[in-house]
Amino acid sequence: MLDIRWMRENREALAEAMVKLNDTTAPWEQALDLDERRRQILVELEGLRAERNSGSKEIGLLYREKKSAEADALKARMGAIGETITGLEV
User: Fold this and answer.
1) What is the pTM of this model?
2) Do 21 and 68 form a contact (C-beta atoms < 8 A)?
């Protein structure tokens, strides 16, 4: 079994090795594509989590400042972000 990091860093060498082995059935390109998509999703998740965390802090500040209408609107937005996060984590 090959390490995905090695595969990512040595894509050309892997392609050459697969040609030498005459292995056309190994789905290594698909594995690398899936790995790239997974990494993109992780970056997106990190950004959404950071946004949710800062929004949650801001909600607390808004409630302390008696700005409940703004806090409620932000709370609804953070709920939507939470749902997006849940969808991406599945």
Assistant:
1) 0.76
2) no
**Tokens of residue 82, six digits:** 């939470």
Q: What angle do CA 77, 82, 85 make, to 5 degrees?
A: 130
Which residue is associated with the tokens 């949710």?
52
Amino acid at 30: Q
Instruction: State the amino acid at position 60 in one-letter form.
Output: G
* Inter-residue contact 32 to 9 (CB < 8 Å): no
In this prediction, residue 7 carries a pLDDT of 95
Nearest to 46 by CA among 8, 76, 84, 75: 84
Looking up tokens 């190994």, which residue turns up? 26
Question: Look-up: residue for tokens 């998509």?
Answer: 37
Q: How far apart are CA 8 and CA 28, in angstroms?
A: 10
Query: What's the confidence (pLDDT) of residue 23?
Result: 85
